[in-house]
Design a protein that fits this description.
2 strands, rod-shaped, transmembrane, 2 domains, 4 helices, transmembrane helix, mainly alpha, membrane
Length: 179
Amino acid sequence: MPVKLKLIPPAAQKPDFPIGSRWFKSLAGLLIPGFGWGYFTGMSFDAPAFWIIAVVLPFIVWLTAIWLRMMIYLPALIQANAWNKRREELLLSEVRRGRRALQILHSTFITAHSEPEQTNISSVGVLTQNKQILHMQPSWHGNNSYRLSRLPIQSGMTRDDLIQQIFNRLVAGIARHLK
């Protein structure tokens, strides 16, 4: 089963973190009108009402605005992180599923280098020796046409017997690995 990683939805974009310099500018923007209102109404600097109107009230409004901004930012961040985590898990599971589809339990092959009695020497070892084994052979039909390679046939063996012997060798090799 093919795995299509392009069908996985893109990662969620995380919301921008509130910029601190903007918040301090907004605090200054709230404090300046508060001081101005208290000063132009004629309140004395010693009066507690002046400090409540000039500092405490703007500070409470500022903290409330920060709290509301965080109540909007944090759920969006949590949702984006959860989406990205689920996406990563899905991507990882799809990659694992694709790898499982590509896992090979056993592989075997029979080449012209393979001999029926050859069990302890690998074909790769014989191939690396670079030994020439292609030579002219008559066809299985006994015609005068020649072939450069074919599976070796023993005397008195038919093609069906050869195919049955090859199939038995392949199944025996697979059976050893499936035990």
